[in-house]
Predict the 3D structure of the following.
Amino acid sequence: SDNYVTINRTLSTPITVTGWAKVTDFTKTGEGFLDPTPHSVLYISLNTNGIGDIYVYIGNGSIWLSAPTISSVNMVQSVWHYVTFTSNGSVSKLYLDAVLVGTSNYAPSGYGPYYQLGSLSTGGESYIKGYLDDVRIYNRALSAAEIYALYSATR
């Protein structure tokens, strides 16, 4: 569907974004998990190429700084997965079901006044075809042990 949440709050790095996602239709690609304004800061995309893959794009508010960090493990359609992105200001990490699946030496910067969960902040058709649950945003990079503890506690 076309449901999403807009939150009027400026994010910053260090950051952790974590939550449960269940994509129910892999024929719809590029589904936004989190997208702050401006779009060229940080974009977490679920099912980017129609195979359950996860991409994380990192920028400085004007341009993307690198090729996307790509999950080395794909999600399974219609199964709940725990997706976590962390950045401590110099290293960014992507976890799927509390297992590290991607790393980048770039950190997002240049955040704007709001962000969206479940869609692109620029509009368009990048809504999640599925569900999000228990999405949390922290103003620090959680450790692998903390991510595993949250994953285990909320299963």
